[in-house]
Specification:
β4, α6 and β5 form a beta-alpha-beta unit. The protein is 48% helix and 12% strand. The strands form 2 sheets. A 5-stranded mixed beta sheet has the order 3-5-4-6-7. Strands 1-2 form a two-stranded antiparallel ribbon. The chain has 312 residues and is of the alpha/beta class.
Length: 312
């Protein structure tokens, strides 16, 4: 029976590797690709509704530090005080946050048949903080897949959503997601989750559409953990998410310039503290050695005199 189980698992892994939806990756001896990934063939339409996300309206003190002469001086010395850059996203794809997650996904109004078929295809992105790089490319493919799906009109049960990793704390903590970008297939009102790193799926709009249409995501087992949805220790991540949300809510109220100043002061204090410890150890070590030498020199003659007295 054990051998049959091994054979079955091997065949399932073989099918997973051969699937066209998953990237074959790099193999030893293969030259590094010199071309950048090709963009999907469905471009963004100029008429596509879009919204801009970014740091929002800054306070007077933030403007004082980040704009004008002080901003120019800080840029010359290599200090970036401009905050998070803005990014333009398609507003037809709902932005999922800690506040609206339960309303949009968990408590979505559905019939029993619709609830059984409902699939949420989500992207966890960091493009708001890294306007160039892998996250931007994945965002572009995700939007193109959404447009391609609308053109085909074949997946009425699939909904798309975007999660800004930099502005979400509770949700990503509950899911134990500590980096981005990720693609997520969510079912059963958030109780069944499948996570895909950006390099695990071939990123083109047509292939992602087929990935959803043929339910190729079901080839991967959903995330099962004692800390995950329905797990025995799910409450631990829930408490951690609440704690981190409180900290994040307090930190975002602190002006950026003050945060930079405080972090620089703490780093300087920590470095000076470590240096002082090393100097203290270096000074105390020779003193201890001198004390040991002095004590040994004092005790040696006394032992000799005691022996001579004994012989007499």
């Amino acid at each position: 029976m054990r051998s049959l189980a091994y054979i079955a698992s091997f065949l399932s892994l073989t099918g997973l590797v051969n699937a066209q939806y998953f990237s074959a990756g790099w193999t030893p001896g293969q030259p590094a690709p010199s071309e950048t990934p090709s963009t999907p063939h469905v471009p963004h339409s100029p008429s596509t509704p879009a919204t801009q996300h970014g740091p929002g309206k800054m306070s007077f003190l933030d403007n004082l530090v980040t704009v004008g002469p002080l901003g120019a001086v800080s840029s010359l010395i290599g200090l970036n005080l401009t905050g998070t850059p803005s990014v333009t996203w398609d507003e037809r794809i709902p932005l999922i946050t800690d506040e609206n997650y339960a309303e949009i996904i968990v408590n979505e109004t559905l019939t029993p048949e619709e609830e059984k078929e409902r699939v949420w295809f989500l992207i966890i992105t960091v493009t708001a903080g890294q306007p160039e790089g892998v996250s931007k490319f994945v965002d572009h493919v995700f939007d193109a897949t959404y447009n391609y799906t609308l053109e085909k009109g074949e997946l009425p049960h699939v909904r798309f959503g975007r999660i800004d990793y930099l502005n979400v704390t509770s949700l990503t903590t509950k899911w134990a997601v500590w980096s981005a970008p990720y693609l997520v297939v969510l079912k059963d009102r958030g109780q069944t989750l499948r996570f895909y790193k950006a390099g695990q799926i071939r990123l083109t709009d047509e292939i992602l559409h087929q990935f959803l249409k043929e339910k190729a995501w079901s080839m991967k087992e959903p995330w099962k953990s004692v800390y995950g949805p329905g797990g025995e220790r799910e409450y631990i991540l829930d408490y951690l998410a609440q704690f981190l949300s409180v900290i994040y809510g307090a930190l975002v109220r602190v002006p950026k310039w003050l945060m930079y100043t405080m972090s620089g002061g703490l780093a300087t204090f920590f470095i000076n503290f470590c240096i002082s410890l090393r100097l203290l150890r270096a000074v105390s070590a020779p003193t201890a050695q001198e004390h040991e030498v002095a004590s040994s020199a004092t005790n040696t003659p006394q032992k000799g005199s005691t022996k001579r007295k004994g012989k007499k």
